[in-house]
Write a structure and sequence with these properties.
The chain is of the alpha/beta class and 425 residues long. It contains 16 helices and 13 strands. The chain is 40% helix and 16% strand. Helix 6 crosses helix 7 and helix 9 crosses helix 15. The longest helix has 17 residues.
Length: 425
C-alpha cells in the first residue's frame, strides 16, 4: 500500500514560471517510489504567469484538493495593474525612481502582509486541512515556499496534529534579494525573522535547493537539512534546427540588477574588431526583459542584434535552449545570490549547448557548471577571459563543432531527485 503524503503548494498548473515545476515533477515520479501524493492548492489563485502546456503533465489519477483564496493583488489592480503585476512576480523597480504608487504598494506588501501577500489563506487553509487530514489518515505533509505563508499552514498543522512535516525552501526567506526592497519597518523585519525561525525549528525536516542555503539555515536550526536541487526531465522529443547565426540566448526574466555590462562591452568590442562576428552575431532574449537591460544594450550599440522573443511556454523555451549556439545565465553580483540556482540551469546542462554564466564568485552555480563540464563561469570583473571564451565559441561555431561534453548529469534527473525525496519520506 502506498504511503499518503499531502503536499501544500501555491504554484500549480496553469501557473507558469520556475516556481511550479519543482513539485510538478516530484509529484510525477513519487508513485514510482510507492508514495501517493495528494496536492493542496488554491482554487482561484492570481498567478502572474500562465503556461497551459504544463497542465498536460498532471496525472489524471492525482488527487488534487482545492480551496478558494482571496488575494490583495486582485484589489490592488484597481489602482495600478502594471505595477501590481510586476510586484506580484517579485520584479521591483530598483534602478529608476519609484513612483508614489510603487512605494506605497511595496510598503503595504512588506509591512501589512507578513510573510507575503498570501498570508490571508493561512487561517482558512488550516481549518479546512485539519478535518481533511483526520478524515483521510494522513501522517506526513510537505510545504513548499515561496510564498512562505504556505509554511505557516504547515506550522499550524504540526502544532495541532503532531504529524511529520517537511518544509521545502525553493528560495531563502529573509536573505533573498527582493526582501531588502520591501521597505520593512524594524518591527516587520523582526517578525519575518521570528516566523522563519519558528518554521526552521518546528519542521521535522528542512529541504533546500542549494548548499549555501543549507549553511545559512544551519546557523538558525539544528533540524536535519537536505539539499535536493532542481533538475531536468525528459522533455517531449522535438526536432530543432540550429540557428544559422552565432546566437547567444538568455531565457527567463532578465531583471535590472542582473545587468551584465561586462558582457555588453565584450560583445561590442568583438563586433568592432571582427567583421565576421559582426555579421553572424545574434542575441536571443526569451522572457521578460527590464527596460534598464534594453537601455544598456542600446548604450553598447547592440540593439540591432537583439531578437526579443518575450514570454513563451516552457516547451517553446526548451526549443530555444536547443537551437541557440550558446546559453547565457546571469545572476546579480551579490553575496545574497550565491545560493540561487536557477531551475533553467539544469535544462541548459542537457541541451548540449555551452553555458556562459556570470555571477558572484564561490556560488553553487559556479561549482555545478565546473563539476559537470557544461560551460564557463565568470565573475563581474573577468572581462578578458569572458571575451576570449566568446571568441573561442565563435571560432568553434565557424568550424561546426561548438558543443559540450557534460559529465555526471544523471543525478540531476527529476526521477533521481525524487528518489532522494522518497528516502526522506
Amino acid at each position: 500500500m502506498r504511503k499518503k503524503v499531502l503536499i501544500l503548494t501555491y504554484y500549480w498548473p496553469p501557473a507558469g514560471g520556475p516556481g511550479v515545476q519543482r513539485w510538478l515533477k516530484f509529484v510525477k515520479y513519487l508513485p514510482e517510489f510507492n508514495i501517493q501524493p495528494i496536492v493542496f492548492v488554491p482554487e482561484n489563485a492570481n498567478y502572474p504567469i500562465i503556461d497551459k502546456t504544463l497542465s498536460v503533465e498532471v496525472s489524471k489519477d492525482l488527487e488534487l484538493v482545492k480551496l478558494p483564496i482571496t488575494e490583495p493583488y486582485t484589489f490592488a489592480r484597481f489602482f495600478s495593474k502594471g505595477k501590481t503585476n510586476t510586484i506580484s512576480r517579485g520584479i521591483i523597480n530598483e534602478n529608476k525612481k519609484q513612483s508614489l504608487i510603487e512605494k506605497l504598494l511595496l510598503f503595504i506588501r512588506g509591512n501589512f502582509f507578513i510573510p507575503d501577500a498570501r498570508v490571508g489563506w493561512v487561517k482558512p487553509a488550516t481549518s479546512f486541512l485539519l478535518d481533511y487530514i483526520k478524515n483521510n489518515n494522513i501522517e506526513t505533509i510537505i510545504t513548499t515556499g515561496p510564498p512562505h505563508s504556505i509554511h505557516l499552514i504547515g506550522l499550524n498543522l504540526k502544532q495541532k496534529l503532531g504529524l511529520k512535516w517537511l518544509a521545502d525552501f525553493r528560495d531563502p526567506w529573509t536573505t533573498i534579494g527582493y526582501h531588502k526592497q520591501l521597505k520593512l519597518t524594524k518591527t516587520s523585519q523582526q517578525k519575518h525573522k521570528a516566523l522563519e525561525k519558528q518554521v526552521l525549528t518546528k519542521a521535522n525536516q528542512i529541504i533546500v535547493t542549494s548548499s549555501v542555503t543549507k549553511q545559512e539555515f544551519q546557523q538558525i536550526t539544528h533540524k536535519p537539512i537536505a539539499v535536493i536541487t532542481n533538475g531536468y526531465d525528459n522533455e517531449t522529443s522535438q526536432v530543432v534546427t540550429m540557428d544559422s547565426k552565432f546566437s547567444l540566448a538568455h531565457i527567463g526574466s532578465f531583471l535590472a540588477k542582473r545587468n551584465p555590462e561586462i558582457l555588453w562591452k565584450a560583445l561590442s568590442e568583438l563586433i568592432k574588431e571582427n567583421d565576421d562576428f559582426k555579421t553572424d552575431f545574434q542575441l536571443n532574449l526569451v522572457g521578460f526583459v527590464s527596460e534598464n537591460i534594453l537601455e544598456s544594450i542600446k548604450k553598447y550599440n547592440l540593439i540591432n542584434y537583439v531578437n526579443k522573443v518575450g514570454y513563451i511556454s516552457h516547451l517553446e523555451s526548451i526549443k530555444f535552449q536547443k537551437k541557440s549556439q550558446a546559453l547565457l545565465l546571469i545572476e546579480i553580483d551579490s553575496e545574497d545570490t550565491r545560493c540561487i540556482i536557477p531551475g533553467k540551469l539544469f535544462e541548459y546542462m542537457v541541451s548540449n549547448r555551452p553555458i556562459i554564466a556570470i555571477g558572484p564568485k564561490a556560488s553553487d552555480v559556479e561549482q555545478i557548471i565546473k563539476n559537470t563540464n557544461t560551460g564557463k563561469f565568470f565573475g563581474y570583473h573577468d572581462f578578458e577571459s569572458l571575451k576570449k571564451t566568446i571568441l573561442d565559441h565563435y571560432k568553434a561555431y565557424q568550424q561546426g563543432h561548438l558543443k559540450t561534453s557534460p559529465i555526471g548529469l544523471q543525478k540531476y534527473h527529476r526521477k533521481s531527485l525524487t528518489h532522494s525525496l522518497s528516502n526522506l519520506l
